[in-house]
Structures are given as structure tokens and as C-alpha cells.
Design brief:
The protein has 583 residues and is α/β, with parallel strands linked by helices. Helices cover 31% and strands 15% of the residues. The strands form 4 sheets. A 6-stranded mixed sheet has the order 12-13-11-14-15-16, with helices on both faces. Strands 3-1-10-5-7 form a 5-stranded mixed sheet, with no helix packed on it. A 3-stranded mixed sheet has the order 4-2-8, with no helix packed on it. The longest helix has 27 residues. It is elongated and about 110 Å long. The two termini are 60 Å apart. Keywords: GTP-binding, Nucleotide-binding. This is GTPase. InterPro entries: G_OBG, GTP-bd, GTP1_OBG_dom, GTP1_OBG_dom_sf, OBG_GTPase, P-loop_NTPase.
């Protein structure tokens, strides 16, 4: 089917974007675009490929907005409620005592790590705590603002920006000074008083002339100076730094009385709410029996934080673009990891984390299905659409029907290769680890070229790194050299976490079993192994050679799930050793 003529301008623009992207990454234009240079001559397959390339180019320019691993957040605690200037009135008591209530305290802002999030994209850039309620007559105090909890993913590092950082927002006193620029001294004084005092109706001019008000105003400014100095001293000496790599749990005491509600964890306090204003009874004195003024609530603490997410994956995949990392992740997880797979570079723009579950006998969830082929995403989606349109799923059982049918069976399900993925694998699972598919690494990525730091940060906390190279390429050893150099340029010593080299796409070598081509593939694998054993050795000591680590080399075909049990077994060994050192 050919696309109609009305897509002409869209297709022309898309062809230009696709050519620019592929020329920058691979040096040549894709074959399907070279075949159809005229608008309106693209079939469905080429149109889908073109659409995916345009999406990739857009996301690359946007920096991966669906996944955020660093964010600047301006946070403000809740403003305190205003105090009330009122007098008690009731029958036969026309002139009662001062009865204004105090304002409620502003809500505090907390930050709490949670395992249910994987990105910072759900966190707004401006956060404000709930304000406190205003005081009312008859001694009614305002309610306190509820605390606000900011939930962030595990592995988030929180840093407070220093005062000299241009990205830092102004605090409440600096913001007030900025708002009064250009005013005369008398206008500044009046505005500062309006921001701090509440007057009884028609008594504002009389209050400012009384000595009791002037004394109260001097005491208020003195408290403000002390609070401002204490805030700056804390920011200089003890700036906020939190490494949220563990989930917070509150254990209920064994001897706790019954019927007491268990409090949920609130996390770490990062911005305190402002104090509530004082009602006019607070200013009663022998010299002033009926004060007709009250204070407004204080503004909440303002702070600017830098949030940086470092994924807590056990194993990180490192490779050049289009090396087959996404296909490998899908094969290891049995297709449960929803990563984009396509035949062009920069398909993966955001880190994707999958879980590999292993049984006691070494079988893993992704390897229990036989003859499973992990093709490109658009091909699998096309097959699914064809099955749905043909009515193949019309008589298929639902999940609940399948479970009910299995529960009615008299014989239990055998724990062998016939076991299916999903909740059936829970019966035999004994070990699990997480693996991260990171975007492709290109030369000069440490200098923030390409996707640069946006994904190198996500690999800092991986317990082990695995190089993935395209074995069908002309020189996979050159890819290893570039990968190691870029890791070292970004963070010295980061390449020492590498434990294995996966020579992916080995199915493309050897032809149809021709002896000469098979021998050529074996010779190429031996050369890669020799390069790894000589050039990729990890030296932990300059004098003790016994502590050197030699990387394992495994040739695989992720598309056809070939030689993956060996990969899973080695990865499990790396993770177990790394976890032992962490304990």
C-alpha cells in the first residue's frame, strides 16, 4: 500500500531528518530511504521506519524528556497563617478582652525515596508546601498545613545549590528586597509593615504611633535577623546532601498498644514551613490592655535542590549504537522489558531496566521459551496486528481463565522446560538481578557529545559492567577501545567494573555453514579473545599480578536467544561477588 499524496511535505521533511541522523551516526543514508526519493512512494514498512526515525530525532533533540535523571527544583515551605486582631463580644459584655487567635504553621516539605518510580519526570520544578490557616476571633487558632512529601526513585542524590550558584532561587528576604527596588525609604517602610502586621479596622495609622507597637516591631525585626543568620550559617556549614539509595521502613514496636495507628514514613525534611502569626492577645501588657494589631505568618523556607538519579541496576550494558543491547535485554527477560528494537542507531534514548530471574538449576525466565525470535519492534507489532485482524485471539483464554483451568487440573504442573514465564516462574525462582540497557555510547561521549552525560551517570552505581559489541562489524576490538576510553574519561576507574564482553550478532557470521566462512568467524573470535586478554586486563595492583581480572568473552545471538544461559550464569556470579563485598 502506497501513502497518498497529502503526506508529501511531511515525508519530504522526514526524509531530510532521517538522512541527517543516519549520516551523522553511520555515515550513509539507509537503503529504504535511498530506494524511494520521490514523495508519495513509501510503502507501509518504510513509512513506519521513517516515523520511528523522526521520533528518535525529536527525542534526541529534546534530551529524552520521558526519562529525567537530573532536575533543578525550587522548593518553598508553606506560609504560616496570619494572626487575628479581634475582641471578645457577647451579650452584656460589649467591651471584651482581646480574642484573636494565632495563625497555623505552614506545612513542611519532605523527600522520600520509593521503589515504585524510575524517573524524575513526575516531579514538578516548583513545589510549595500547604499554607497554614488564619487565626479567627474567640481565640480560634488557624489549622497547621499538612506536610508535603516529594517521592523520588531509589538512587536519587539530593544536593542543595550554594548561594553563588546562578540557578539558585532567592530566599524570602532577597525576594522582598528585589520587590522594593526603586521605592523611597518611606514607601519601603510602609510595604515592610504591610507584609508583617495585621491591624484592627481603622486603627492602622494610630497603631504605628504607639510606643508599644514600635517595641513589638523592633523585637520582630531582631528575631528575623537571628533567623536569617541561622539559615545562612546552616547553608554554609551543613548544606543538604542526601544519598537516597535505601527505602525507609518504620518497624512497629512489638509491645506497642493495640489500636494505635502506625505512622507512615515521611522521609527527610528539606524545607520547613513558616511559623504562624501571633494574635493580638500576645501583645497584651500593663501599658497596653487592648492591643489592636497582630502579626502575619512567616514565609516558608525557600531552597533550591539539585536531584540526580543514578540507577541502581546490578549489571549495566555498555556498547556502541546498534550493537544489539536492547535485543539482548529483551532476550534475557523473556520479552518483559519493553525496549525499542530497530535497525538504526540511537534507538534507545532512555535507560531501560529489566529483571532477570534465575532458577536453582540455572534456568532463567527468558530461556524457557523455545524457538523465540526477538525481531525489530515494528515487525512484532505488525505480526500482532495481523493476528488481531485475522481473529486468532477471538477464542484465546484470558489470564483468569488460564489460572482457573490450571487450578482444576489434578496433576501439578511439572517444574521443567514446560514451565511458562510470568507468575509460574515464581515457584522455582531462587535468584534475581537487574540489568540496565543504556543508550549507545559514541566517541567523545565523556565530553557530552551525543547523549553524553545523560546516560553515563546512570551506570555509576552498577555493580558490574558488560561490554556489548557488534561481532558482525569489521573490527569489534576497536569498539572496545573506544568504550573503555570514554568510561575512563568520564570517571577514572569506572572501566574496572567491566567483567564480560558479549560478541553479539554472531548469527550473521558463518553464512549458510560454509566451512571457509565458519573458520573465518572462529578466527575472528580468537582474535577478539586475544585482544581482550592482552589489552582489556584490569590491574588492581602494580606488583601483584594474581589480583588481575581477565574479562570473559561470550559470542551470542540475542535475536535467536543463542548462548544466553552462559551469559546469565556469568552475570549471576559477578552480582553475587559484588553483593558479598557490599555487606
Amino acid at each position: 500500500m502506497l501513502r497518498p499524496f497529502k503526506y508529501q511535505s511531511i515525508l519530504e521533511h522526514g526524509v531530510l531528518l532521517a538522512r541527517a541522523l543516519t549520516t551523522a551516526s553511520a555515515g550513509t543514508a539507509p537503503k529504504e530511504i535511498q530506494k524511494h526519493d520521490k514523495p508519495g512512494q513509501l510503502n507501509d514498512q518504510d513509512f513506519d521506519a521513517l516515523r520511528r526515525r523522526r521520533k528518535t530525532e525529536w527525542k534526541r533533540k529534546q534530551g529524552g524528556q520521558s526519562f529525567l535523571d537530573n532536575l533543578i527544583v525550587n522548593i518553598r515551605g508553606g506560609t504560616g497563617g496570619d494572626g487575628c486582631a479581634a475582641f471578645h463580644r457577647e451579650k452584656f459584655k460589649p467591651f471584651g478582652p482581646p480574642s484573636g487567635g494565632n495563625g497555623g504553621r505552614g506545612g513542611d516539605v519532605y523527600i522520600l525515596p520509593t521503589p515504585h518510580l524510575t524517573t524524575l519526570s513526575t516531579i514538578p520544578k516548583r513545589i510549595r508546601g500547604e499554607p497554614g490557616g488564619n487565626g479567627q476571633g474567640t481565640w480560634q487558632n488557624g489549622r497547621n498545613g499538612s506536610p508535603l512529601i516529594i517521592r523520588v526513585p531509589l538512587g536519587t542524590v539530593v544536593r542543595e545549590l550554594p548561594r553563588d550558584d546562578p540557578r539558585r532561587a532567592k530566599d524570602e528576604w532577597e525576594a522582598e528586597e528585589e520587590s522594593m527596588e526603586g521605592l523611597t525609604p518611606s514607601e519601603k517602610r510602609d510595604k515592610m509593615r504591610d507584609n508583617r502586621w495585621v491591624h484592627y479596622p481603622r486603627y492602622s495609622e494610630a497603631n504605628v504611633q504607639r510606643d508599644t507597637f514600635k517595641d513589638a516591631e523592633a523585637a520582630l525585626y531582631k528575631q528575623e535577623r537571628e533567623r536569617r543568620l541561622a539559615r545562612r550559617k546552616r547553608a554554609l556549614q551543613e548544606p543538604i546532601y542526601l544519598d537516597l539509595d535505601k527505602e525507609e521502613n518504620i518497624e512497629r514496636a512489638i509491645d506497642a498498644p493495640l489500636g494505635i495507628k502506625q505512622h507512615e514514613p515521611t522521609g527527610h525534611l528539606i524545607a520547613s514551613g513558616g511559623l504562624g502569626g501571633l494574635g493580638n492577645p500576645h501583645f497584651t501588657s500593663p501599658l497596653n490592655r487592648s492591643p489592636k494589631f497582630a502579626t502575619r505568618g512567616h514565609e516558608g523556607e525557600r531552597i533550591t535542590l539539585s536531584l540526580e538519579l543514578k540507577l541502581l541496576a546490578d549489571v549495566g550494558l555498555v556498547g556502541m549504537p546498534n550493537a544489539g543491547k536492547s535485543t539482548l535485554l529483551r532476550a534475557l527477560t523473556g520479552g518483559r522489558a519493553k525496549s525499542e528494537v530497530a535497525g538504526y542507531a540511537f534507538t534507545t534514548l532512555n535507560p531501560v531496566v529489566g529483571v532477570v530471574r534465575v532458577a536453582d538449576d540455572g534456568k532463567f525466565e527468558g530461556g524457557i521459551s523455545e524457538n523465540l525470535v526477538h525481531d525489530e519492534t515494528w515487525v512484532e507489532e505488525k505480526h500482532e496486528r495481523e493476528k488481531m485482524e485475522s481473529g486468532e485471539y477471538a477464542q484465546a483464554l484470558t489470564r483468569n481463565q488460564i489460572v482457573n483451568k490450571e487450578n482444576l487440573e489434578e496433576t501439578p504442573r511439572p517444574l521443567d522446560g514446560s514451565l511458562r514465564a510470568g507468575h509460574h516462574f515464581d515457584l522455582v525462582e531462587t535468584f534475581r538481578f537487574t540489568i540496565a540497557d543504556n543508550p549507545g555510547l559514541i566517541s567523545r561521549a565523556s565530553e557530552n557529545v551525543g547523549l553524553g552525560h545523560s546516560f553515563l551517570r546512570s551506570m555509576e552505581r552498577s555493580l558490574a559492567l558488560v561490554y556489548v559489541v557488534d561481532f558482525s562489524g569489521p573490527a569489534p576490538w576497536d569498539e572496545l577501545h573506544v568504550l573503555r576510553e570514554e568510561l575512563e574519561k568520564y570517571q577514572p576507574g569506572m572501566s574496572t567494573k567491566a567483567r564480560m564482553v558479549i560478541a553479539n550478532k554472531a548469527d550473521l557470521l558463518g553464512g549458510n555453514g560454509d566451512p571457509a566462512q565458519v573458520e573465518e568467524a572462529k578466527s575472528k573470535l580468537r582474535r577478539l579473545e586475544k585482544y581482550v586478554q592482552t589489552e582489556m586486563v584490569i590491574h588492581h595492583s602494580n606488583t601483584d599480578a594474581s589480583s588481575d581480572i581477565f574479562l570473559d568473552v561470550v559470542a551470542t545471538s540475542a535475536k535467536f536467544s543463542q548462548n544466553l544461559p552462559k551469559v546469565v550464569s556469568l552475570m549471576r556470579t559477578y552480582v553475587e561477588r559484588a553483593r558479598e563485598h557490599l555487606v
